[in-house]
UniProtKB/TrEMBL annotation:
GO terms for cellular component: integrator complex. This is Integrator complex subunit 10. The keyword Transmembrane does not apply. Belongs to the Integrator subunit 10 family. InterPro entries: Int_cplx_su10. Keywords: Nucleus. It comes from Oikopleura dioica. It is found in: Nucleus.
Amino acid sequence: MEVDQSNSAWLLSKALNAKNINESRAWLESAKAESPKSFNVMISAYELECRARTSPKDTANVKILLESDCDITKSEVNTFRSEVITALGLTNFRELIIEFINITKYDIDENIDLLLKLLKKYPDYIKPVGPNICDKLLIGEKHDAGGDPDMTPLNKKRHIAVNTVFPILFESGKLTTVQGKTFYKWFQKSLEYTVWYISTSKRPKNSPAIDGDPWAKLRKIRQHVGKHAQWEDEPTLPPQPTQSLWQTLKWLKTIYTQRTRSQNDNVMRKQTFYTAVNVYLEAAARYVAISEPSLMCKTTSKQTYSQFPIYGMIIDPDDRPQGKYYDKNFDDLCERQQYFMASITAKKMLDDDYAFAEDLLKLQKALKFNRWRWLEAFNIDFSIKDRDYDQAIRLLSNLIKAGNWPKPVLYRWRVQLGSCFCALEKIKTSVTYLYDAVLYALIKWAKFELGSRSPLRCSYHSDSSYFDGYISRA
């Protein structure tokens, strides 16, 4: 500690004796890095800026330090320094925050920690300046992108907005003057960030990891948005994701039927739409994370294996096979089916309403759904479940041609493609895809001991013999 104090004192003396203000600033920055909480360093920085222009960052830091409970040794207090301390005591925090926002264009994230510290200390100022902070972050994100079409939401500014700023603003209860469309915009930004977060295996360095379940955080943001946008109160949800999704759907159907009889139809329409979209994407992502982990960046299994529908998706919970391995496998399949059915239920709710279908199409273009490969894999299974084999063939053909895929994924899609052709009684075409897929599966199977867990497997379902028929006919 003595070394640090002597170093900061030496750096401070260099700053005070510098030839010009730029050199003095450079020495002071070094002194700040050496002793960031030193009163003498902070007050000297403020004095320096007072001679040119007031720096809200230095002012805020010194003012917070003066109002804190910690003991400060105010050594060598001269007349000018006394005047500075007196002036700081009269400085309004709201003025500091507004000045912070006004002098920053695209780099507000550099001072975001200090801004949030001010807002937490004085939450009454959230109402006039809070939304402006969000706008500055989103504008800065767009500026950083520079029109780059490949720019993703996984950047520092969006991370700060979704994980830090939005929760503080929502929990403050001070956003009474913010319009509903602003809340919906914030939810869309949060939804886009969450989906990209769970879809990307290698995130940029400026987008750190999220603590906890990203979907749970998004659900909380949606509930905060609903509270401020005058939505109907949601029921208390259980912690288990499958149960919470189904309970949300059950409640959603109730308000959906009441929507046409409500005087506040537009608000209920927004609530139904955004909640259904949230359930649709969350359930689909959780389904793919179980059935094809290699398509997701976050998986619950260390092994890569495939579960996928060939024909039919119905699993009878009473038809449980015996053995520890089969018990775990069966439970995984039951959980997978619950996610799958929850997602397609929400998707059909959106598709069956013309207004919702149009809104969903706009949202798909805005958030670029076509860049999420896992969602396309889900849509394939959705088409097979509805026996829309032509649609499944189109999706599968485009994906297989799109690029290099992991072998388990390619195996999955080739089997599904061959099965769809076989279901349409195009046996010769079916054999082309099934032959390579079955050979690959047999080679992989041979590497495991008899009775061990295969890394590649088709799912159990009530019509499992149907797939066996495909292979024998092929």
